[in-house]
Write a structure and sequence with these properties.
The chain is built from 3 helices and 5 strands, in the order βαβαβαββ. It is an alpha+beta fold and 122 residues long. Strands 1-2-3-5-4 form a 5-stranded mixed β-sheet, with helices on both faces.
Length: 122
């Protein structure tokens, strides 16, 4: 089967993620939640993620959003990538991730950071 997509982005209004909204301390402004960003592994490091996020930011601004929030792994390279795109860390969260290792499902702790891009800040 031919692959149809090598990148994707999924998001929705932050009000649908109350745990992130609480950690980010966003209660009054209209905020968008970037739920998933996917770039196929052999297409990474070519600016596709940056292009997707910049496109998303233009779209959410046109829809009246004032900020974009996301939760990502506390990986230094991910934090650096999002920081270069205007995001800043506003909180941390530990979640449980289910990983399949050697055919066995394991529940593992996973450190995450909550990041915000205030679209109109200077």
């Amino acid at each position: 089967m031919q692959e149809m997509f090598d990148r994707a982005i999924i998001g929705f209004d932050l009000s649908r993620k109350p745990d992130v909204q609480l950690i980010a301390s966003i209660t009054q402004t209209k905020a968008f939640y970037l739920a998933e960003l996917f770039v196929q592994s052999d297409k990474r490091r070519h600016g596709l993620g940056r292009k997707l996020i910049n496109q998303l930011i233009k779209q959410v601004i046109s829809e009246g959003y004032l900020s974009v929030a996301l939760r990502t792994s506390a990986s230094p390279w991910l934090i650096e990538m999002y920081s270069k795109l205007g995001f800043r860390i506003v909180g941390e969260q530990q979640v449980t991730t289910i990983k399949k290792i050697a055919g066995q499902e394991l529940k593992l702790p996973d450190d995450r950071v909550i990041m915000i891009n205030d679209l109109y800040s200077t």
